[in-house]
Amino acid sequence: MKSALIVYFSSTGNTQKVALAIKEGLEKESVAVDLKTPQEAADADFDGYDLICVGSPSIEWQPAKPMADLLKAKLNLYRSQGKIKPCAPKVPGQNALVFVTYSGPHTGIEEATPAGKTMRQYFEHFGFTVVGEWYIPSEFHGRLDMSTLGRLGDLRGKPSADELAKIKKDAEQIAKSLL
């Protein structure tokens, strides 16, 4: 049986909703899934899974601090173990999915892509094959103006049930590709 670890940080619930939709999609295709926060995943061995999914909101163009701290700690650990190699050769069977929730109240998706690219680079260095880099527009909780007046328009209620259903379906496709 294939296995996956989903590590996510969510301060308002948006990223958690996406993580749960990914979990449902993977489990529908018989992937065993562990779901953890960055703090809970500190001792997790990424090499022990077929797929690692990491998700964070974009906060000032970067992953949230708990996620950034986890990935930096893993990089330092794997470097000390000699697992980080020049040219970052791919490790067979090691896959990663990166997902970012964002509202982009000022410049839209441009506010989210640096966070996704940053997380992706850790997995590239680990030698993982990155099977997806997803950006999910989401409501900006606590500030109506940031959810309604930005470049993306009205984001209240996002991610919607339909968007979460699509994420679940996309996760099912990733699970099928692992078989």
Oligomer: single chain
Low-confidence stretches: none
CATH architecture: 3-Layer(aba) Sandwich
What is the average per-residue confidence, as pLDDT, rounded to a whole number? 96
Count of beta strands? 6
Number of H- or I-type helical stretches: 5
Structural class per helix/strand content? alpha/beta
Q: What proportion of the residues form beta strands (DSSP E)?
A: 15-25%
Return the string of H and E elements.
Answer: EHEEEHEHEHH
CATH first level = Alpha Beta
The percent of residues in helical segments reads 25-40%
Number of domain units: 1
Overall description:
The protein has helices at about 15-30, 65-80, 115-125, 145-150, 160-179, and strands at about 5-10, 30-35, 50-60, 60-65, 95-100, 130-135. The protein has a single domain (about 5-179), classed as 3-Layer(aba) Sandwich (Rossmann fold). Helix 1 crosses helix 5 and helix 2 (about 65-80) runs parallel beside helix 3 (about 115-125). By secondary structure, it is of the alpha/beta class. The relative contact order is 0.20.
